[in-house]
């Protein structure tokens, strides 16, 4: 595959990692044996407030819902969480300002936290 630019590569990498992890979580959930759904511990750089463990399937569903409301925020979460990019790297990949990424990242985290902790 030929990459058009750095943004194309990181966008593809983040989407691929998301698909792999979510497919794996779904396979584990469907398995007759095993201890249940694996969770992923978020490191401090991408941690959701007060929620160290995230169900990947629930996160994927929430990200799909977020994408319907704000595609850019969804891409920021995808790049930060699944590709592990910093705020600066995310801004470079999306060709937007770091302050915009920071604001959208904070907003997306708050929205995702609310969605993932609903009873």
Short description:
The protein is mainly alpha-helical and 119 residues long.
How does this model look, in words?
This protein has helices at residues 6-30, 56-69, 71-82, 87-94, 98-116; strands at residues 39-41, 53-55. With 119 residues, the protein is mainly α. The protein has a two-stranded antiparallel sheet. Helix 1 crosses helix 3 and helix 4 (87-94) packs across helix 5 (98-116). The chain is flat, with a radius of gyration of 15 Å. The chain starts with 5 loop residues before the first helix and ends with a helix. 24% of the residues are buried.
Our Rg estimate from Cα atoms comes to 15 Å
> What is the H-and-E element order?
HEEHHHH
From the N-terminal CA to the C-terminal CA, the straight-line distance is 43 Å
Q: Biggest sheet: strands, sense, closure? A: 2 strands, antiparallel
What is the 3D shape? flat
What is the percentage of strand-forming residues? 5-15%
Strand-pairing-aware structural class: mainly alpha
Notable characteristics:
two-stranded antiparallel sheet; single chain; 2 strands; mainly alpha; 119 residues
Q: How would you summarize the topology of this molecule?
A:
Layout: H1 6-30, E1 39-41, E2 53-55, H2 56-69, H3 71-82, H4 87-94, H5 98-116
Antiparallel strand pairs: 1-2
Helix pairs in contact: 1-3, 2-3, 2-5, 3-5, 4-5
């Amino acid at each position: 595959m030929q990459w058009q630019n750095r943004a194309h590569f990181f966008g593809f990498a983040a989407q691929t990692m998301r698909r792999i992890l979510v497919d794996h979580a779904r396979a584990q959930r469907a398995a007759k044996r095993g201890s249940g759904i694996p969770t992923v511990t978020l490191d401090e750089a991408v941690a959701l407030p007060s929620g160290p463990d995230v169900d990947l399937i629930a996160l994927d569903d929430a990200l799909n819902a977020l994408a319907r409301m704000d595609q850019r925020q969804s891409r920021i979460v995808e790049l930060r969480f699944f590709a592990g990019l910093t705020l600066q790297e995310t801004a470079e990949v999306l060709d937007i300002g770091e302050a915009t990424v920071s604001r959208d990242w904070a907003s997306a985290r708050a929205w995702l936290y609310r969605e993932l902790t609903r009873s």
